[in-house]
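Researcher: Next sequence.
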Amino acid sequence: MTMLFKEPVQASPDQIIWLERRGWVYELLMDFLSRPPRMSLIAQWRQRAELTHRIPNSRGGRRLRSYLESIPEQHFRSACYQEAEEYQRLFMGNQAVLIPCEGTFRAKRDGADAFACLSHIRRMYADSGVVFNKLYGESDDHIAMELEFMAVMAEGMRSRVDSSHLRHSCLELADTQIHFLEVHLLKWAPRFADELIRATNSPLYSGLAELLQEFLVYDLEQLRKWRAGMS
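Model: Next structure:
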């Protein structure tokens, strides 16, 4: 058993592609759900999508990619302004349409203990050594913070595979991500995405919502397969 955990991690070609792309997708979702998108952010992700082709070929991914690629140059500034206004309408202020924080969302929808939920999330961040540089005072259970946590963990696992780290290190990272998806993100993000789809006519936010639903389920499935293959 000791020798098993000293073995470097082996990954199939398909797993390598998944490992390389998953952090990128979490970053994409986090960037657009964290704050009103600036013109530079939309331009950056449009260029990255065109150059890398990493947006998943799912329904939501195709919708999002099609929208980013179809914005006419002469209307780019006005389109970006409209998306920033839509973010504010959806998520900001006392009149916000949606609840972007897990504790409050689950307290209102399920009667969950919002403080206990937030405390558990903070413990998971601390136990994983993840500290966020919060520029806008986001709560630790904000959808963007939870997605950023997964992006950080995904990059950590990818880098360990690339550098042939010992197997137990990747096992710990996989277990943490599986637990976070099962206990937190997948407990509320799919319903949050459903509400977002119903609340907006924006192809940007409807595409992001569909991609969020699709990708979280897919990523958990892949993590479980990855974890089983290392056991």
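Model: The chain has ten helices and no strands. The chain has one domain: 12-230.
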